[in-house]
Each structure stands twice: as C-alpha cells, then as structure tokens.
Amino acid sequence: MTETATVRRSRLTPEREAELYAAVLDLLREVGYDALTMDAVAARTRSSKATLYRQWGGKAELVAKAMRANKPHTNIADVDTGSLRGDLHTLVSGTDECAMEQNNALMRGLAMAVHGNPDLLKAFRELIIEPEMAELRRVVQRAVDRGEVRPDNPAVEYVLHMFVGAFVARGMIDDQPPTQSFLRSYLDAVVLPALGVSTTR
User: Fold this and answer.
1) Which of 63, 91, 101, 181 could be a cystine partner for 76, CB 3.0 to 4.6 Å?
2) Are residues 49 and 81 in the same domain?
3) Is residue 201 part of a domain?
4) 3-class DSSP state for residue 143?
C-alpha cells in the first residue's frame, strides 16, 4: 500500500468504518454479491460512491474487508494456553454462535461468487485466507516447538482445510449451523488426531 493510500484510508473513524462494514453485510444478506452495487452501498451509508472507491478501490475489496472485520472469534495468534488442544478449544469457545451462524450463511452465499469473480477471489485470498493460514501456522508451529506435533506430519499443511471442511459439511450434511459443541467435538475427533495430538482432557 502506498503512503498516499495509507493517508487516504486513515480518514474514516473506526466507528464510521464499522458502520459501513455492517451496512455492506446487511446488503449482502439482502441481495447477494452479484446484485450488490457501490451505488447501493453509498445510498445505504449516506456516502458518495467516489469516497467508497477511494477508500476501498472496489466492491471486491470492500466486501472482503467487511467479512474480515465481522469475524466473530478471538485472534488465535494471541492465545497461548500451553497446548495445541487448549489453543484450538479457546478459539472455538471465543466465538459468538449467533454471529458465527450469520457469517457462515454469508460465506455460503459468497462461495459461488468467489469462484466466478477473480477480483473477489483475490481479495478473499489476500485479506481472509492468507491471514488465517498465517495465524494457524504460528499456532501449530508453537505445538511443533513444544514437541506436541511432529514437524514432518503431513496434516500440518491442512489445518485450515479441515476447519473449512467442518463449516461446509455441517451445513451440507446436517443442515445445521456449526456450534461450539460441534466444533469442539470435530477438533477432538478429526483435527487433533490428524496432527498426532492427544485429546485427553
């Protein structure tokens, strides 16, 4: 990001930014990504379209940043309980189930749009997927350093894939939103055993 862009993007207060992101998510729920327009966002938020483009560049970046700002869980990279199981369970326990259900519904709605829109896919990779992978890698690396996980365990590269799989499968197979109880069970039954970590309480 250039210095000019940094200065330009610093003009919004955190409160105003949160208000804009909330409005974007409301519009997404109402009309979906393809029908969402910057004109509609401008009208809903009483902003000028030119301001929105200066601040975010376009719809894809705005939507991805709104989703990232709405993430309903604790930053796992800041959690260190002394064990991988403790860290991952803390992540799940720090979620708000109502917000998680809403986010999951939004992600399902965006799934088709992501794969049909290169700009949106790029924004999601840069702003959501890659930061999530980096966080989880740090957490797993701590477990490797503690001797909990073998460094050559092939499942290390698929932790985020397993998490995403839990969210997708819960809706598709069970027709239910992911809950804290489901995710804790999933961690103990799937993720931790794949990493060779004991699930003994």
Assistant:
1) 91
2) no
3) no
4) helix
Asked whether the predicted pLDDT for residue 121 surpasses 50, the reply is: yes
Report the chain's C-alpha Rg in angstroms: 19
- Rounded mean pLDDT of 73-87? 80
- Same-domain check for residues 32 and 75: no
Instruction: List the structure tokens of 81.
Output: 């309980």
CATH code where residue 13 lies: 1.10.10.60
Calculate helix-pair angle for 14-35, 59-69, nearest 10 degrees.
120
pTM of the model: 0.76
User: Domain range for residue 132?
Assistant: 71-194
* Same domain flag for 166 and 88: yes
CA 12 to CA 18: how far, in whole Å?
10
Q: Specify whether 16 is located in the same domain as 34.
A: yes
Q: Grade residue 7 by pLDDT with cuts at 50, 70 and 90.
A: very low
For the four alpha carbons of 146, 148, 152 and 153, in that order, the dihedral sign comes to negative
Instruction: Please give the Cα distance from 21 to 38 (Å, whole number).
Output: 13
Distance CA 174, CA 185 (A): 15
Side chain identity at 71, as an amino acid letter? Answer: K
